[in-house]
Amino acid sequence: MKAKNQRLVLALIALVALVGAALLAMSALKDRASYFYSPSDALRDHVALGQAVRLGGVVEKGSLRRETDGVTIDFRVTDGIATVAARYTGIVPDLFREGSGVVAEGRFTAPGQFVADTILAKHDENYKPPELAGNGMHQSASLKK
Amino acid sequence: MSLRTIRILLWLPLAAFLIVLALVAAGLIRPHDNSVRSQMIGKPLPAFSLPSTRPGQPPLTSASFADGKVRLINIFGSWCIPCAEEMPQLQTLKQSGAVIEGIASRDRPADSLGFLRRYGDPYDRIGDDSQSALQIAIGSSGVPETYVIDGKGLIRLQHIGPIGPQDIGDILAAIRDAQG
Amino acid sequence: MIAETGLIALWIAAAFAALQACLGLAVLKAGGEDLMRAVRPVAIAQAVMTATAFGALLLVFYRTDLSVKLVVDDSATTLPTLYRITGAWGNHEGSMLMWVTILALAGAAVALFERRLPERTLAATIAAQGVIALGFFAFLLFSSNPFARVYDVPAEGNGFNPLLQDPGLAFHPPTLYVGYVGLSVAFSFAVGALLTRDVGPAFARAMRPWVLGAWMFLTLGITAGSYWAYYELGWGGWWFWDPTENASLMPWLAATALLHSVTVLATRDGLRAWTVMLAVVAFSMSMVGTFLVRSGVLTSVHAFALDPRRGAFILVLLALYIGGALALFGARIATVSEGNRFEPVSREGALVVNNLLLSVILAIVLIGTLYPLFTEAMGTKVSVGPPYFNATAGPIALILVAVMAAGPVMRWRRDQIVAVGKRIAIPAVLVIVALAVALWWAPGLHILPLLGLALAAGTAAASVAPLWKRNLRRTPLFTWGMVVAHFGVAVSLAGMASESAFTQETLVAARPGEMVRVGPYAVRFAAIEPVAGENYTAVQATLVATRGTATPITLRPAQRTFDNPPQQTSESAIATRPDGQLYTVVGEPVPGGRWQLRLWWKPFVTLIWLGGTLIAIGGALSLIGRSLPRRRKAEEQSGFARFR
Predict the structure, then answer these.
(1) Binding site feature residues of A for heme
(2) Which of C58, C168, C296, C334 could form a disulfide with C305 if both were Cys (CB 3.0 to 4.6 A apart)?
(3) Any stretches that span the bilayer, and where are they (chain C) (predicted)?
(4) How far is CA A130 from the centre of its chain?
């Protein structure tokens, strides 16, 4: 390395590395960021099956059913317009119940049929309603597939 | 050339920082919430009939809304701190002539009334929504939320979270809009 | 009265901070022994006043003074004493006050003890410190007053978030804050040095203890936070790539880079501009950490917590401090003369690669964390989680570890590739052997855990290489520090790889009396019964785990129900054995008299936090080694410290 320009060379290397990092990040974000849908968004936009997404809505009253294995639940997520059937295997967060808001991470296995890997209910360090959202997540992850 | 290149490179960190700053500022100005927006805006109020929280009063029903008068529906709970925070703003709205119907969500009537004794009672009527049936039907996923219902019983506006002093103008404007 | 005393103390402290900034700038402009002598008592008075304010807050929390709004929001008379005190910093306002208190104490320490810097640079540093403190005082006083009263004194407070009711909380935030504040001191040093164009070894030596200390506390804070989340949340994970976690990781990455570049500057007088830049970046990242996340801009899940005025205030502070420092950098750094040069193959070269890789990881984490903000500005909501971070940051972190293994055996200024190759031959062979063993023993391993295990073996060996053929008693303490810290990285990496490769999980609904298997354990669900705690009731399961002929272990996971505020938390029960942890959680009842049980066997998971602790201990050793004055002098003269 020519000593005369060492500073410039180092600066350029740093620049290249950081631009490289940004490009890597952007390309990875393209297929690894999961989009947030409400049930009506999801049905309207025809979300690709198997793609990682988040589904947000309210657990429909009377829709929560437990499978005989005791750890799998079926429920419906609604936004008042459209409804999506969802299935989850695992221990649900304490704040999860019928009629409460829910954000589920997972994928559609068929149109209108969602399988959740993770269920998020939310809470806050401030005192918030038992069923509701705030900062910080309260989640429970499902079995690794 | 090399010297000038260096000089330009030196300002790159500042430029990158300003971009991030602009992004964050945009995020701050646009109230970006992951809250679930109601899909009921522009639709008629769902049919409901809730017993009154105040003893001895008639139930709060959806039928009573389509009488040509613009009303606010405010969903609250005695267990909810932001609900207490927005009470002064609700009083201001009431003094500006707004009619506010309260919906006590997942609450015991005794607790609701105690809460109103402490923080003031801006409500015209209060429905006891202990099962949060109306709350879900109207598309609300949290407390407090406030809705503007026009004279035909159509839902015109949803305000998520507590009403701050800066929100009063918006809500009064929405009420004027709803009056046509 | 106590609350008012606190508030008044805070105002006085703010005035002292302003005075400190003015005095510092005056010395910078005109010089002057007398003025300089006046700066010290001002900095001390500021620290005393801030500490008084913080003491007042602790006192109102300890007494559960329900006329103070913060106490009403975040405490209750029924809380156990420990949480009545820690509740003081378990909320936005209180934690800000704690931040400022640590900042003021650090500022006083700089003013009192710093002797290495030229007077004008020290004055500029102290002025910068005063300006930073002033901004935070303004933030506290104008938009986050912790001493605000309520008009109606309620009979009881709203209680403290049960998830935060843990001894971990007493320890975790203060540790991180000490780290952040240490970086703010490094930032002030950098600004001071830019103002006087005095970027050299003396500046680096003055800054280094602060960077080392900050880095050590950040390491401890992150390690403790990770373990806390692991056992308290009951999800079995130890890192979630949550924005809150990233907010503490990013300053750590920058501080790690800074720690290494400041060594180059102190020892070899190289990397001047880069070191200054990193000092600015490290503090910027801790600002992002403390404030953006707290303000709710980044994590907002529901719009409650965000007070737009507060967010705007933070943004203005960020713009002023970081923008100002970067503008100063752009304007000044070209006039700072270039430091010593070095060959690409040299210790410096390896440290440059280390710095570049750390910066790349930092950029990836920052972009991933901010990306949801960006898309939201475009109108789409996304979340960025582990799939992104693991796939991008993971491989680069492994390369970084490989460089870390080679760096310490390289010579300063110039080295030969062949010679370096010989020195790391044994670790390199170890990597290959470990790869082969892992492939033979567990063929289906994923690539990242596989490489992680192999690299951990090689790095563990390479990290002790600097001690090779050396008189261990004569080896300076800071070399020991480096060895221990690098060894800690290998230990932690081994734990992470093992956890992600070999964890076994069982999720069932079982009746009392039934047997469940997980990993090497047979677990009997012995009983489930209600128990009462100080401020909660709980349903507690009794599990008896047996493995071979070893003494059975009894675990008691529980579901706690708090009533003020009404919330449930699950309390995991964990049994630690030399070769791993058995992690158990009890869920809800299921019709038929069954209960959900979730069990994990996590081989060698404890190495993650053991490694983190070793890294911090390494930092502590270096810090002690660097700050013993007699020995530092000897080291600077001969290149090695003499054993006393």
Answers:
(1) 123, 127
(2) C296
(3) 6-30, 42-62, 96-113, 122-142, 177-197, 209-229, 249-266, 273-292, 312-331, 352-374, 394-412, 424-441, 447-465, 477-497, 604-624
(4) 21
Q: Is C338 close to A105, i.e. CB distance below 8 A?
A: no
Q: What is the mean pLDDT of chain C?
A: 87
User: CA Rg, chain C, in Å?
Assistant: 26
CA angle B112, B117, B119 (to 5 degrees): 90
Question: Does the beta-carbon distance from C368 to A25 stay under 8 Å?
Answer: yes
Binding-site members of A are 123, 127
User: What are the CA-CA distances from residue B152 to residues B68, B75, B138, B156 (Å)?
Assistant: 6, 20, 16, 10
Cα separation, C427 vs C502, whole angstroms:
24
pLDDT for C485 equals 96
Which residues of C fall within a CB distance of 8 Å from A3? 341
Q: Which of C180, C184, C186 is nearest to C203 (CA)?
A: C186
Q: Which two tokens stand for residue B157?
A: 């506006």
Name the DSSP class of C461: H
Q: C629 pLDDT band (50/70/90 cuts)?
A: low
pLDDT above 90 (res A133):
no
Which of chain B's residues have a Cβ under 8 Å away from the Cβ of A81?
39
Instruction: Flag whether pLDDT at C431 surpasses 90.
Output: yes
The pLDDT assigned to A129 comes to 30
Would you mind telling me the total number of residues written for chain C in this entry? 644
Is residue C591 reached through a cis peptide bond, with omega within 30 degrees of 0 on the bond before it?
Answer: no
Residue C425 burial (CB count, 10 A)? 10
Neighbours of A, requiring at least 3 CB pairs below 8 Å, are: B, C
Phi, psi of C191 (to 5 degrees): -65, -45
User: Could you tell me which chain A residue has the CA closest to the CA of C386?
Assistant: A32
Q: How confident is the model at residue C513 (pLDDT cuts 50, 70, 90)?
A: very high
Q: Do C392 and A25 touch (CB under 8 A)?
A: yes
Are A55 and A65 contacting, i.e. CB atoms less than 8 angstroms apart? Answer: no
> Taking CB atoms and an 8 Å limit, are B141 and A133 in contact across chains?
yes
B35-63: average pLDDT? 81
What span, in angstroms and rounded, lies between the C-alpha atoms of C447 and C390? 12
8 Å CB contact between C114 and C120: no
Query: B60 φ, ψ to 5°?
Result: -90, 115
The helix/strand/coil state of C209 is helix
In this complex, is the C-beta atom of B34 within 8 Å of any C-beta atom belonging to chain A?
Answer: yes
pLDDT of residue B38: 63
Name C581's bridge partners.
C576, C602
Q: What is the pLDDT of residues C9-46, one digit of tens each?
A: 999 999 999 999 999 898 888 877 778 888 889 999 99
Is residue B101 over pLDDT 90?
yes
Q: Is the pLDDT of residue C83 over 50?
A: yes
| DSSP codes joined into one string, C302-339 | STTS--HHHHHHHHHHHIIIIIHHHHHHHHHGGGSPP-
pLDDT at A128: 33
Residues 6+ apart with CB under 8 A from A112: A43, A83, A84, A85
Mean per-residue pLDDT for C402-413? 88
Which residue in this structure is represented by tokens 């806390």? C228
Indicate the average pLDDT of chain B. Answer: 82
CA distance C281 to B17: 10
- Window 481-510 of C: residues touching A by CB (8 A cutoff) are 505, 507-509
Looking at C123-223, which runs of residues are DSSP E strands? none
Predicted local confidence at residue B80, as pLDDT: 73
Q: Which of C569, C244, B5, C97 is nearest to A130 (CA)?
A: C569
Find, among C229, C237, C235, C239, the residue nearest to C598 by Cα.
C235
d(CA C83, CA C169) in angstroms, rounded, equals: 9
Task: Render pLDDT for C371-388 as a digit per residue (tens, 0 to 9).
Answer: 888 887 777 778 888 889
Task: Please give the C-alpha separations between residue B64 and each of B94, B135, C286, C556, in angstroms, as whole numbers.
Answer: 19, 17, 55, 54
